[in-house]
Amino acid sequence: MLFIALVKFRKTLSKQVVAENIRDIEADTKGQVRYLQIYWTLGRYDTVVIFEAPDEKVAMNTVLKRLDRMEIETLVAVPAERTSPAGPE
Q: What is the domain extent for residue 71?
């Protein structure tokens, strides 16, 4: 499954906060999560993350372990070519 996470850091970004996040990402990729893209952004969110996980439970656990440092809005993404205006095929 494909997920999009919209991230706002709770703390001021520091080398320690970034290093902590990098450690989490490395640990995730040794498990069931695959990061496709990570973007720094301007505006309401600091970062947009696109990742794959086998199901919603794994995606939720990935997000939950970061809630002390980040506010995260997670969306399930369905590729447009797999759906039609009338609904999923």
A: 2-79
In a domain, 38, yes or no: yes
d(Cα 76, Cα 59) in Å, to the nearest integer?
10
Is the whole model's pTM more than 0.90, yes or no?
A: no
The CATH number of the domain holding residue 13 is 3.30.70.920
Single-letter code of the amino acid located at 43: G
SS3 85: coil
Q: How many domains are contained in the chain?
A: 1
Record the tokens describing residue 37, joined without a space.
Answer: 């893209």
DSSP state of 55: S
The tens digit of pLDDT for each residue in 50-73 reads 999 999 999 999 999 999 999 999
